[in-house]
Design a protein that fits this description.
about 170 residues; about 10% helix; 10 strands; mainly beta
Length: about 170
């Protein structure tokens, strides 16, 4: 599957999510912080920083047990390169207080362009208090990055931990 094909699928998923807004009473918007720890083979490459901190913007559309979420992540110093990476991503999640689901995203690194897509498994706990909620989650990302193959490997799988605060209706 080509990168263009995956980008089209991800954009279609995001568009469908946005069109579904009237069907979901619980639209919430917020932001947070995200920690990425690379566990793939690339972590052992010289000069590669296996830890990264990112900042996220998030919009979530919730029904009873189904939630669609669109996030944009910004990592100011990607893999110790000094380059900015931003990554739009979408998730389909099941559950309310405790939840899990799947997602897809793609990153754009300054001077390198669009990267190969990643696929993610995600689980979390969403503490809701009226119009405010705290979403704490962990995910595992499956990813290969061809542009970093000069380091000798392209396995970029990552474990992530994140926290988002969102405002809005439930």
């Amino acid at each position: 599957m080509s990168t263009k094909h995956v980008v089209r699928i991800a954009l279609t998923f995001c568009l469908v999510s946005l069109l579904a807004v009237p069907a979901f009473a619980g639209t919430r918007i917020g932001g947070g912080i995200h920690y990425l720890k690379t566990v793939g083979d690339i972590k052992d490459a010289p000069g590669f920083d296996e830890n990264a901190i990112g900042f996220m913007g998030s919009i979530a559309f919730s029904g009873s047990l189904l939630r669609f979420e669109g996030d944009v992540e910004f990592i100011p110093d990607y893999a110790g390169s000094g380059k900015l990476m931003w990554a739009p991503q979408g998730y389909a999640l099941i559950g309310s207080f405790i939840y899990g689901g799947v997602g897809i995203g793609i990153g754009h690194i300054a001077d390198f362009g669009w990267q190969d897509p990643f696929y993610a498994l995600r689980a979390g706990v969403d503490f809701m208090a009226g119009s405010l909620d705290l979403d704490v989650f962990a995910s595992y990302r499956f990813q290969k990055i061809d542009d970093l193959s000069h380091l000798g490997v392209d396995d970029f799988n990552s474990v992530t931990l994140g926290a988002l605060i969102r405002f809005g209706g439930h």
